[in-house]
Amino acid sequence: MADNSSGFAVAGTLGTTSGRGDGDGSDIPAILITENASWDESRKPTVVITGAIHGNEWATPEVCLGIAEYLLANKDNSEAARDDFGMLINEAAQKTGDGKTEKKIVPSISDIARLLKTVQVVIVPVLNPDGYDFSHTDAGRKSYYGAGWRPNRRIQGLLDQDIVCYRQDGSQYASVPSDVDRCFLADFDDTADGGDLEEEEVVVCESRDGSSLYLFEPSLNVDSAEMFDALYGSTDPARVVCASSQRRVWKDAWPLIGEDTVALKTARADGYLQESSGVDLNRNFQYKWDVVQDQKHLFIRSRSPSSRMFRGRKMISEAETAAMERLVARMNVVALIDYHAGSTQVLYPYAYSTTEHAEHTYLGKRWGKNDYEAFRLLSEQIASILNRHDRGDPSIVNFTAAQNYNDVSVGSGVARDCYYQTERIAAINIEVHDKRYTYENEEFRSIVPKICKINVPGAVWFMFWAADLGARVED
Ligand SMILES: [Zn+2]
């Protein structure tokens, strides 16, 4: 792509991943698109587009490449940009004085030639290449209730003493309490009876004397506040929530010594403790990495190295997140789209809270009294562009604008919150497919091109808007 771009594109790499942790990392490829493209240009206002921070979100790299192709195909086009149905992308800019009172953002740029003179665009189709590759293997596809492998692939280590336990308020015990039972997130394995291995399905508790292991109220959903309350609410016996670097598996085939209870020795001898790997890169960023309020059911996941939503041992502990931080520190990044799958939403900061809003004015008060208003207006307009053409599949349209994924806090360390809060970047997420992540070959070929056609005009409009941001605005 970059080779035939007449100087409008250069390929590059953001860095190298850790792989499994033993020197088998992969490059994180990137493409820079602008007039006279050069990776040495650090002052030109920059829009960053990232895909596949979650390995299993297969449509997102394709959307990123679709955006790159559109920009390069129209690099010399100084007529107002149009979508594949011929509709104007920055439609409102072509209308004058229609007397509407509806509040709208109207970017001043409408064509790609001028856009690429004004901004540079860095596209990172696969930010998590190891997770993405593994999600294409049999094991990776089955992962996480069949949704596919989400985090990166770094092995977490096998330190048995590496147990950390938490109080109900989220604070950490200085040492593992010895007078209580210790409970962990675990997989539920009933493959011996013809069932499945369900990851992160149950909570298991190790008795304080180290003799037994029991399944904690399997009727309760791990993903619920009730589970968390029940763990702490009952005092007979007293229990605490803990995490360790090992993955735990409860096997239904084990011989019981009491109700849902087995000898810990038996369990250990039969694969109770296993290696765990992977950090959810979209929980590893520094802003609110350690948040505890309103996190009940997410708390145990984000702190468990065995979980697909593990936040990492430290903020920015991963090569991929560090590479992004280097990029935004080096270039004049003014705006960013991080593409995801799982719903059809345009999401703006913050992810960690349903009540706190982006009340700064980093974006310059031009589109509302604070950034929350600007983001909401911006995201609603993008959603309406994405909803413009119904391509016959309701799962890839019906976009809404929202602060939180499906109206719930998704917890700590989310990339977009961090880019906005610490770097003052106008960062949004776009989720491109409702409840879907991976695909069979046939459906990939039929549905993903439609997803790209829907999403390219939304990204282009966002870039037109971002061009007006110019240099970063101080608060
Ligand atoms: Zn995602």
TrEMBL record:
<keyword id="KW-0378">Hydrolase</keyword>
<dbReference type="InterPro" id="IPR000834">
    <property type="entry name" value="Peptidase_M14"/>
</dbReference>
<dbReference type="GO" id="GO:0004181">
    <property type="term" value="F:metallocarboxypeptidase activity"/>
</dbReference>
<keyword id="KW-0645">Protease</keyword>
<keyword id="KW-0482">Metalloprotease</keyword>
<dbReference type="GO" id="GO:0008270">
    <property type="term" value="F:zinc ion binding"/>
</dbReference>
<dbReference type="GO" id="GO:0005615">
    <property type="term" value="C:extracellular space"/>
</dbReference>
<protein>
    <recommendedName>
        <fullName>Peptidase M14 domain-containing protein</fullName>
    </recommendedName>
</protein>
<comment type="similarity">
    <text>Belongs to the peptidase M14 family.</text>
</comment>
<keyword id="KW-0862">Zinc</keyword>
<feature type="domain" description="Peptidase M14">
    <location>
        <begin position="1"/>
        <end position="452"/>
    </location>
</feature>
<dbReference type="Pfam" id="PF00246">
    <property type="entry name" value="Peptidase_M14"/>
</dbReference>
<feature type="active site" description="Proton donor/acceptor">
    <location>
        <position position="431"/>
    </location>
</feature>
<dbReference type="GO" id="GO:0006508">
    <property type="term" value="P:proteolysis"/>
</dbReference>
